[in-house]
From TrEMBL, chains A, B, C, D:
Family statement drawn from the similarity comment of this UniProt entry: Belongs to the HIBADH-related family.
Domain 6-phosphogluconate dehydrogenase NADP-binding, first and last residues per copy: 5-164
Listed GO MF terms: NAD binding; NADP binding; oxidoreductase activity
Species per Swiss-Prot/TrEMBL record: Oceanospirillum multiglobuliferum
Keyword Oxidoreductase: yes
Highest taxon above the source species: Bacteria
Protein name (record): Oxidoreductase
Length: 291, 291, 291, 291
């Protein structure tokens, strides 16, 4: 079945995601803040582009959005030229931005009031996952809505999961980021210690990565960490944005996050070192900074 | 080839390890502080037991040792009734205790002076790994010695690795424990947050465990953590002993371990809660303690 | 000189502060969210009360405000019934609320646009300081405005300081709270250790309080800490509100606050223990919680 | 009354302390590892020097000791040429070294066995306090012994306090160092934030130092901290030695010291930056290191 789809936000994630939708045969209209990129996309994928989110969303069955932060989402959805103003009755808004659970509830209400449905749907898997169509998507919303949107999202995902009501997608993504923060700092201290101790770091990882210390990060990041290479992966600036959301939410629900909080500050040190765009594994570089 | 082997220390690890040696057809003599257990072992595995380490080690080709801490090792090796006093020229001492790198160097020297060879060989894989013969062993010592001892250790190990000179086994084990501390705290904060946020914790783990937040601990410990079950696994008391070794070594080699240091203190809180024997994943229980 | 003054917010701080103004002979009109308290105040201090901030601020030479948080301030100043709507040209708005520096800049602009002057003026010294008229006030704003408002604020302050342009008062208050967080945790760990070590805690404080470990908190809080009494002083809920402001500001200006961030999380544990209204020194009680 | 006194260890503390004893008219014999310094001292203060601790201690009424660490103390007291071998029956050994409580108990027992009395007596007040005779001394031991030694120690102290049985002096000193660690980090984060916020740091300290954030460190260290001057005061190397003692003791008595533990690691970063001899207030410099 061919649907009319709209995609708002053509960053490193959104650009290929919207591309997958077009390649799957859907009729896709995109919007991007800088029109040049929207034009480039429409040429590459034979789709349409519009000059405002509201214009892009007219007649769409599903509107997808993947922008920077809460305020960016508000602007393109419930802002003056936002998609909610023009979406047709019964259509669905899917937000792929990693944002607050509060925003998800706010958009859910706005959509209900406008006769629309909403799903918060943050992703993990990074730029590579977006390009390969292998993202993992964590959704919050009504089951009936999810069942409509799920097959479409599968175009760019290896797993699309309904986690609960509106906001549950964002909350699940927060759990993911919280787990990563402590894990990467532990891994960094381990590799740092190994180097100081004069061990062959690669050999050490070979030996311990299958056991109780093993992790995705150890397996996928140790080589670049040992080589002091961080110009790749998930940027520290984004991680800090996400951790800010986690810590604010923790404050709201009474969840204490002591180590997450201090590692967020360690990432501030990485930013100060010039590492705003480095991969999150650059916590190791911070440990070496004072050597 | 049948060897004459000695095993010192029949704790939850040593008991089955020595058993594997006997079952492989070697002639094994054991020593244990409480003789009752040594007697039980000798009945079960048709081996010998001796009343002192020195007596147990006479004529042995290789002497294995797996006891509590540095001082325990000193006592059974270079102490008055220690094995070094009676081991025959050219034989090998293998220490499976997780201990300091300093001790490894001390024993290496003592062995050299006595015409013996030494390997420090701490293990990972826990009680289950010892029972199933699936331990991972991290060795420090001479290559020629390693090549003799390696096949014998393979009786109870899935991997036996030479990491470098004497002490390198202990240092590798330290890296392992350092990586675990941060990882488990991150996982605990994540699961705690998930519960507070009203998410289905098992579903969350299903979704995120394959991605960037994934780890052995997440896969193998989330169920018991969610069920608040900690009467299993690697005990907090042992973890604190190991982290003490890591932090002392860090002090010596100038390796900063900020998060390892504070998590060691969190484990002190777990001990104070009565969790001395709980699994290391009980950091989650600590987070809930003040709720 | 008798002035027409308005005071918005009659909490434990504002109530006595407004009282000092009335006792100094000024003509004071108050506003409070719950009118009962405003009425009580007007009876006690022979002043007026009004039913909205806007009504209270008519004809005032200076309007003071001391409410809960940023949003509360916005509501009573630039909200629909806020004071800025009715303040006469050339009059001054003084905000005693501990709030964000961003809010101070926002109000400064709003006042300029309305032909008014603004001073952010958070206080320290607590309820007792407010009652005794011994507060310390940290101001941000224009010097000429400060010179008019300073003598009036002196009615309830022992020190009124101009720290810089708008926002500088709030920023100074943040420095104060940041210094306190680390200090109180250090003091708590010290007293806790002393108890565990079996020392006479009072005697220890007698000896060390004059030296390099000495502090206002040690001098003024050790007795209640030792007695496990926390129903007094500066509430943990307020401290967390303030630390949230500090951490947000730190994020904005690139100031890393690792220990402030983690102690803020320790305060979350105190809240979870039921300590929302306890004094900030209750970090000691948190250390004991797991014993 | 003129006594025969012995002083072991002529470092920056011991040299002037022994000098005060001589100037008070006592007959003082000193020992120092490097004899040149002992000779210099004996010339300056018209005393004697000896070539071993044992020789120095013969006939002494009280033997004072102020050396580096536990092992140094053991060497000069119960070592082969230690003072305990030659001290006369009924004489007193006073240890001014900041050392472990365990050592204090060990020496107390050794002294009792030799018919001697022991007092552990660590000091605070720094080099300046030693030179001006204004130290604060925290003692552990028997009251009767204390009453004999107290007036002699007053020669170089403004306060000499008996805190309890043997070890209580050391434990009190630990409380002092624990309180300082958190306090100095809080102060550092505060001053750092102030600078980043563009405030006049000196003016800020003027305003907040009398209130709830005030401390000896704020009063006495803010100027040098603001000027980035750390070549003075209490060296980071010594602080780490002391914190190591605190953390080991905490481990023994079950006292959790989370922030002390992590700040000890921050001091490791200062050492790595080349700050081994910098004042403890150099935690501020660490915060700036990644800027």
């Amino acid at each position: 079945m061919t649907l009319k789809l709209t995609f708002i936000g053509l960053g490193v994630m959104g650009y290929p995601m919207a591309g997958h939708l077009a390649k799957a045969g859907h009729q896709v209209t995109v919007y991007n803040r800088s029109t040049a990129k929207a034009e480039k996309w429409s040429t590459e994928f034979k789709g349409q582009f519009a000059l405002t989110p509201a214009l892009a969303a007219q007649d769409a069955d599903i509107v997808f959005c993947c922008v920077g932060n809460d305020d960016d989402v508000r602007s393109v959805t419930i802002g003056d030229e936002g998609v909610v103003n023009t979406m047709k009755a019964g259509s669905i808004l899917v937000d792929h931005t990693t944002a607050s659970a509060e925003l998800a509830l706010e958009l859910d209400t706005a959509c209900r009031n406008a006769g629309l449905s909403f799903i918060d749907a943050p992703v993990s898997g990074g730029q590579q996952g977006a390009e390969n169509g292998k993202l993992t998507i964590m959704c919050g919303g009504e089951e009936s809505t999810f069942h409509i949107a799920q097959p479409i999202m599968s175009t760019y995902a290896q797993a699309v999961n309904l986690m609960g009501q509106a906001g549950a997608g964002q909350l699940t993504k927060m759990v993911n980021q919280i787990c990563i923060a402590g894990l990467v700092q532990g891994l960094s201290e381990g590799l740092y210690f190994a180097e100081k101790a004069g061990l062959d770091q690669n050999k050490v990882i070979d030996v311990i990565s299958k056991g109780a210390a093993g992790s995705w990060q150890m397996l996928n990041r140790h080589k670049t960490m040992i080589e002091d290479q961080y110009n790749h992966g998930f940027a520290v600036d984004w991680m800090r944005k996400d951790l800010d959301i986690c810590l604010s939410q923790g404050r709201k629900i009474g969840a204490k996050l002591p180590i997450t909080a201090i590692i967020d500050q360690f990432y501030a040190e990485v930013q100060a070192m010039g590492g705003a765009r480095w991969d999150t594994s650059s916590l190791l570089k911070r440990l070496k900074a004072t050597d």
